[in-house]
Design brief:
This protein is mainly α. The protein contains five helices and no strands. The N terminus is likely disordered.
Length: 141
């Protein structure tokens, strides 16, 4: 990334191969510049490109997949449609995040339980943590 937190041509090319940018032969959305390299050269196009890349970056920070970002970008092509599909996508993502949180909380409980099976006064050969892992005394999720 460059000094301003935006990405250079390598990341731009990555997003292009991930189909998050326009492809040759496809109509270029009005909010995108016509060429990925041209957008890095002119000041106006550079601002547009930087806004577009910042949008992708913020989506990634929110944990959205490349497919979800692509879908969100497709909604931007028709800005006068209702937000129903965008909200549904985000609701699905929230559900997925909640599932991940639940799984991580269960993992935390397993780790705390495993850690409680051993104290620092033991030698490694009597380590409750290693014995618990070796014996498989952990619940599978």
């Amino acid at each position: 990334m460059d000094a301003e937190g935006f990405c250079g041509t390598t990341r731009l090319r990555y997003y292009q191969t991930a189909r998050l940018t326009w492809q040759p032969g496809l109509e270029v959305p009005a909010w995108l510049p016509a060429s990925p390299l041209a957008c890095l050269r002119s000041s106006h196009a550079s601002r547009v490109s930087r806004a577009w890349l910042a949008f992708i970056r913020r989506c990634r920070i929110l944990g959205l997949s490349l497919a979800e970002i692509h879908e969100l970008q497709s909604y931007q092509d028709d800005p006068h449609q209702p937000c129903t599909a965008v909200n549904a996508l985000l609701d699905d993502h929230i559900s997925h995040v909640r599932s991940q949180i639940t799984a991580l909380q269960a993992l935390e409980k397993q780790l705390v339980s495993l850690r409680a099976s051993c104290n620092d006064d033991r030698e490694v050969e009597a380590c409750g943590v290693l014995a618990g892992i070796s014996e498989g005394n952990m619940h599978q999720q």
